[in-house]
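About this split. The held-out portion is used to measure sequence recovery: a designer receives only the structure tokens and must propose an amino acid at every position. Recovery is the fraction of positions where the proposal matches the reference. Here is one held-out target exactly as it appears in the evaluation file.
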């Protein structure tokens, strides 16, 4: 079958073509798998970050509002536990709003915390830095990095004596499956010392219709967020995805306790992705799995932390929205 004019057939792609970037390498790998999949982190280019902010304002997506409301109760307790002049690290701060609310609880202290933001989106980092600028006396540093590389750089940024508090909010942990989450939380623990703290926000299991509505909203904002990934691949890798030929789908996977987002090909088609050196073939109904959002029980959250070497110290719960904030401390000895 021939593609559109000017699009190389698979045979025309030189075998030596090297992916020019991590995105290219990940797309090449992900679209060669069965089922096809792409890492969720690539959803957050500039437009993707803005669309995610719009999602947070949707009536059907309650995670962000629930967490912000819980922070009002939780922040003074966290400030009570985390003494001294702490080093507060947020993984994926988005627009900085939550960190601002948490940091305000430390505002009465003579020596203000040092805030350090790690985000893959430079536009989100810029927005967060601006939001945090209103905090007088706080030091703010940023790392434009993936979680892993941001964590690996921490030792060089952290003031020597400061206790560390790591924030992983918004149910960002839900992008990992449970094994990956434990491995990742262990990395977080190992990036710090015994006695350091972790505040983890996690969305809870709830009725399937609520979960699906949260990820397949009637306004189509989540569909736009998902399909924007194809816009990004067209722009950055010269791909030729026809947006009209891919549907957004959100499904609840009960066995793995997660909502999955997919982009489903409406018909058999071939799509060239020159920047990744591939031509991807799709059967009708075949999908690219773009994100997982795991949903938890309270016991499940506790055991993730415990398996990673943390001890659960306090937990705050919104029973109506089904959301929990959990404060863990890295075990001593
Ligand atoms: C930012 C990964 C926590 O999984 O709920 C929202 C992203 N995707 N709607 C989530 C998302 C579709 C969100 N996280």
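Reference sequence for scoring:
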């Amino acid at each position: 079958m021939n593609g559109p004019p000017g699009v190389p057939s698979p045979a025309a792609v030189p075998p030596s073509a090297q992916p020019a970037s991590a995105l290219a390498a990940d797309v090449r790998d992900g679209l060669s798998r069965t089922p096809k999949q792409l890492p969720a982190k690539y959803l957050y280019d500039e437009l993707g970050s803005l669309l995610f902010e719009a999602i947070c304002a949707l009536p059907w997506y309650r995670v962000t509002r629930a967490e912000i409301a819980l922070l009002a109760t939780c922040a003074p307790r966290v400030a009570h536990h985390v003494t001294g002049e702490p080093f507060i690290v947020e993984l994926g701060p988005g627009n900085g709003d939550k960190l601002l609310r948490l940091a305000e609880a430390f505002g009465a202290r003579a020596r203000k915390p040092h805030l350090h933001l790690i985000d893959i989106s430079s536009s989100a980092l810029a927005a967060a830095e601006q939001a945090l600028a209103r905090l007088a006396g706080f030091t703010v540093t940023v790392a434009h990095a993936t979680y892993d590389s941001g964590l690996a750089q921490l030792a060089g940024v952290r003031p020597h004596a400061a206790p560390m508090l790591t924030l992983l909010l918004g149910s960002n942990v839900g992008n990992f499956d449970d094994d990956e989450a434990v491995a990742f939380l262990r990395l977080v623990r190992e990036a710090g010392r015994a006695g350091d703290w972790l505040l983890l926000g996690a969305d809870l299991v709830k009725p399937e219709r609520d979960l699906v509505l949260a990820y397949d909203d009637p306004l189509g904002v989540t569909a736009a967020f998902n399909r924007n990934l194809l816009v990004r691949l067209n722009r950055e890798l010269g791909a030729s995805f026809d947006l009209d030929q891919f549907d957004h789908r959100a499904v609840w996977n009960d066995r793995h306790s997660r909502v999955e987002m997919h982009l489903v090909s409406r018909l058999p088609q071939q799509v060239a992705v020159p920047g990744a050196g591939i031509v991807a073939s799709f059967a009708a109904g075949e999908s690219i799995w773009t994100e997982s959002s795991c949903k938890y029980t309270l016991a499940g959250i506790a055991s993730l932390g415990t398996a990673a070497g943390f001890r659960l110290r306090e937990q705050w719960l919104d029973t109506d929205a089904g959301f929990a904030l959990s404060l863990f401390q890295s075990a001593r000895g």
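Annotator remark: Residues 1-19 have pLDDT under 50 and may be disordered.
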